[in-house]
Amino acid sequence: MPIKPDQPTVFHGSGTRGLKSISPRQESVRDPKEGPVVFGTSRLRLACMFMSPDTRDSWTKKGSFSNTYYFIISNEKRYRDGDKGGSIYELPADTFYREEGKGMQIEYVSKTEVPIIKEREFDSTLDALLWCGVQVYFIDPETLQKIWKAPDNGLDILKTLTSENMKQGKNVQQFI
Fold it and tell me: Could you tell me which of 89, 170, 90, 87 has the C-alpha nearest to residue 123?
């Protein structure tokens, strides 16, 4: 049975600015039978992590421990060179739903075109991540591999690293 969001709006991160609505697409597929969808989330921090389209492969890792969200990048130059900014969109939640066993519990989809209620533009996705309070880590590829393989999903390793947030003094969150 579909579960509706418990708030009137959801957030959507995109590398594209100036949209008036968002149409269902089948770019990022979590279930081939689901068909084209618009993704939305109840968490602003999670939406921020999806503004950068070139980070969906083995050189980055996104996640959270409790309510502390992190974004790990193992190629700082590649990330910074590709950082063109984007927008966080606020969308009405009335057509969004989630199904048990599909995606994250804070991730919803809509099968219909969704109008934009509000847009917040960023010239840099890194600036957006720091503004949202996502803890950003620029690390080497070997450390990323250790995090991928760690039995605790890398929590103990992350606790020893210095985030970009700490370096810049912006929205520092501690892992519990």
Answer: 87
Helices in the chain by DSSP H: which ranges? Answer: 44-48, 76-82, 125-132, 141-149, 155-158, 164-168
The pTM score is 0.89
The secondary structure element, H or E, covering residue 90 is strand 86-92
pLDDT for res 29: 61
Model confidence pLDDT, tens digit, residues 99-122: 877 666 788 999 999 999 999 999
21 phi-psi bin (left φ>0, alpha ψ -120 to 50, beta other): beta
Distance separating alpha carbons of residues 171 and 173, to the nearest angstrom: 6
Query: What six digits make up the tokens of 54?
Result: 């070139």
Please choose, from the candidates 142, 160, 157, 164, the residue with its C-alpha nearest in 3D space to the C-alpha of residue 71.
Answer: 164
Measured on CA atoms in the order 84, 90, 95, 100, is the torsion positive or negative? Answer: positive
Token pair 């790990």 in the structure block, residue: 72
Measured distance CA(59)–CA(21) in Å, rounded = 31
CA distance 149 to 41: 27
Please give the Cα distance from 38 to 5 (Å, whole number). Answer: 14
Short-list 19, 170, 168, CA closest to 88: 19
CA distances from 125 to 24, 52, 63 (A): 23, 6, 16
- Degrees, nearest 5: CA angle 155-45-36: 105
